């Protein structure tokens, strides 16, 4: 990296021989600017691309996260409306370098009004739930739904699919209104990365069998597919008699040496014996904060999110951010807003509004995850710290270990946003104990969407 900044992928590149080769830079940033590297605790895949703009594993300026999602949505808009060109991706590169004001400028430039586009947007759980939401926001008139790994009483399954490389492969589609989802309008499938594209192509095939559509768009932050993968997409389009396009902020490929899986497993086995520094007992307070989430507003896209919901959320965000700002109190200088697995969009938008309300405070955003990743405290590695804790909701595949990465005592306040289904005794005795060992914690529960009685 230029300017003396260490690229957070050098550690993996030097030890495992993983290389990134950049291609098209449609948004003004290359592959290595948008991702770093880490090592998975997964015997099927050695490396993990760690996004600089997703806000999943790396605490990130929420305005950069939302701005990058809106920028991806603008690329989708241009593809859906062949008469349009995407807006210039001003400020992204500066925001990635941490230039003051660039993240907010990126977000603001992407929020300029455009004509609504009717489409169905489907995001993939857990990683791309907020990213898909942001793409739908950019389209204005889109219906949004994300897949889920949490079965919910009262909601019938529309369909399911398999994410072949994932450590937790079962996904469900649980729209509250299947008729709103089951329409012949363009379908946009959003994931954080396209590695081979098999997941999204499998989804298209499954969706098309239920309701044929004429146009599909694959949207990702980075597109790593090879020519064989692209040919597979064209073949499916021909077989279905549909148009299938793909858009991404950056293109490229990951070059893996022979034996990388074995080498990665050996590396995990060797380094996993090192003790984690973040398992001390809690020392700070946990304070519950009621932000009065708007009644009837879905907490996310698990059961569908409509344009009218977006309008309602935009109206109430400043009020909820003011509540949080007041409860943080004087002296807060570096604040982490931490989301909960699939619950990524609500904490993202709260963090973004909080950053606007407190311009002199460094507000960051990330979420907990199911993904087991090796942590290495080195500036050339993307995952510096790892908090492990038991699951605290009721996932379909049963209880298991969960993680929060790059969460440390460098933050002087932590705001944890959780839906009420995950607000349990397991949370109190697990993750909250880990967090309050680091900093004072504000616990912000929001109601999980339920059918009206």
Overview of the structural elements:
It is a single chain. The protein has a six-stranded mixed beta sheet with strand order 1-10-9-8-4-5, with helices on both faces. Strands 11-17-16-12-13 form a five-stranded parallel beta sheet, with helices on one face. The chain has a two-stranded antiparallel ribbon with strand order 2-3. It is globular and about 60 Å long. Residues 161-169 have low confidence and may be disordered. Helix 8 links the parallel strand 8 (187-194) and strand 9. Helix 3 packs across helix 12 (345-357) and helix 11 (307-328) packs across helix 12. The chain starts with 9 loop residues before the first helix and ends in a 7-residue tail after the last strand. The chain is an alpha/beta fold. It has 14 helices and 17 strands. The chain folds into two domains: 53-255, 3-Layer(aba) Sandwich (Rossmann fold), CATH 3.40.50; 286-446, 3-Layer(aba) Sandwich (Rossmann fold). The longest helix is centred in the last third of the chain and has 22 residues, at 307-328.
Descriptors:
453 residues; Rossmann fold; 14 helices; 2 domains; globular; 32% helix
